[in-house]
Amino acid sequence: MKKENKDGFITKLTDMLNTEHVIYLADIGDLNATATSELRRLCFKRDVKLMVVKNALLRKAMENSNVNFGDLMHVLKGHTAIMTAESSNLPAKLIKEARKSSNKPILKGAYIEECVYVGDNMLQALCDIKSKNELIGDIVFLLQSPARNVISALQSGGQKISGVLKTLSEKSE
Question: Is the whole-model pTM more than 0.90?
Answer without folding.
Answer: no
